[in-house]
Amino acid sequence: MEYSFRQAQQVDASQIWEILARAIQRRKEDGSNQWQDGYPNPSAIKADIEKRNGYVLIDGDTIVGYCAILINDEPEYAKLIGKWLTEGDFVVYHRVAISENYLGKGLAQKMLLHIEDFARQHNIYSVKADTNFDNLGMLNIFEKLGYTYCGEVFFRGAPRKAFEKVLAH
């Protein structure tokens, strides 16, 4: 199965929101407080797309995954309680979600590899991300893909585990 990765368009917003809404529900069913405070929401998706930060993983015409990718744009990362592996430019991603119908196919990993390609295309060799302490799926993916735990960051008052992966040049 060949999946493609591209920048999201406004026309994709409702499909993207459907995927995120189900992911929010799954986090709740898993007993997590991640994404249970009204964020992310449709206006966050709209803003991602307007700022050209939204990206989708596609199977034919179907959007199967979503994430926001930013360069050097996460103020909370400057307040890390811990230590990053590198000091320079970095790519950060947020709001990673895979469609309910495509779970268990390794697509989150595939999307993260596309994000690494995005970083290399911009001559950036550091990828940073964070997740909730109880998001075992994402923690597992970070481990599989060679991320290093660097410490804690806080979003809307809640602590998150922060990770970095240094990419080969």
From TrEMBL:
The record ties this protein, via CDD domains, to: NAT_SF (cd04301)
Domain of life here? Bacteria
Question: Which molecular-function annotations from GO does this UniProt entry contain?
Answer: acyltransferase activity, transferring groups other than amino-acyl groups
N-acetyltransferase domain sequence ranges: 3-169
Which UniProt key words apply to this protein? Acyltransferase, Transferase
Q: According to its UniProt record, what is one Pfam family this protein matches?
A: Acetyltransf_1
Q: What is this protein called?
A: GNAT family N-acetyltransferase
Cite the source lineage. Bacteria, Pseudomonadati, Bacteroidota, Sphingobacteriia, Sphingobacteriales
